[in-house]
Amino acid sequence: MMFAEHKEDHFxxxxxxxxxxxxxxxxxxxxxxxxxxxxPPVFGxxxxxxxxxxxxxxxxxxxxxxxxxxxxxxxxxxxxxxWNFWESIALFIRDEVVRPTIxxxxxxxxxxxxxxxxxxxxxNHSGDAHVYGAAHKNTYSHPxxxxxxxxxxxxxxxxxxxxxxxxxxxxxxxxxxxxxxVLAVSAFAATVNFxxxxxxxxxFFQNMKPDTGVPGVxxxxxxxxxxxxxxxxxxxxxxxxxxxxFANIMxxxxxxxxxxxxxAVAAKQNVAMWGLxxxxxxxxxxxxxxxxxxxxxxxxxxxxxxATIFIAGAVNKH
Length: 318
Hints:
globular, mainly alpha, single chain, about 60% helix, three-stranded antiparallel sheet, 7 helices
């Protein structure tokens, strides 16, 4: 541990670092600094703050859903507000995002068994419990459910990473382009993998080659040109996943830093001005903080929804 004062980089707290900064350090009677808790290298590899936060997010998601799986394994609904909260979000992603977007590309119409059951926040249910149990035991009861593990993993991992940034002195790993870039590459690899499995490599690329309906050489050239645009767009769409998530999370934390930075600037003025700016900055930070919580859920949803759309385009013939 060491004491340090950050004078030049005013946005160090929204970037990755080799440790955690705690506002408990004091350099002398006139200057206040930050207590730096540096993370030690492991086998010569430097561990960073965002690495630790990503591990925390992964462990939390594993804890929640392994616990949830144990509770519904017998076919009984999960009880308790905590477990019902996470289950309700998972069911929303399944029933309102994945199944409607990807659709039934291999079977006929599917009836959602959960329509026959209603569960309140205490875990009490009405309806056919046997239907509820069958719906939970049959993991892949809908053709689109085979893509759920990946979409759920993306959504909840990103959500927890986003929410960690709302806690003091931590940070959002998703505010780093390297992290969001790896997530985008994972979505790209999953889309290609699912597309290959559903249609075969030849069918996957053939699906990107449209039938223009134009005969002759011109029609062939037009079709190949559109195919090239589709391939290029395929890469661009997944790149946007990384940039969108990074920009929104990083931008939100930067706005909070700027608003609170007004207090330090106003401290050089008279006491009345400092008090007015401090009051306004704190109130503004509270509202921005509430907006940040909304953005944390929204950006996780947007990433999962777009990834679902890309998978749907890869596994459905069009």
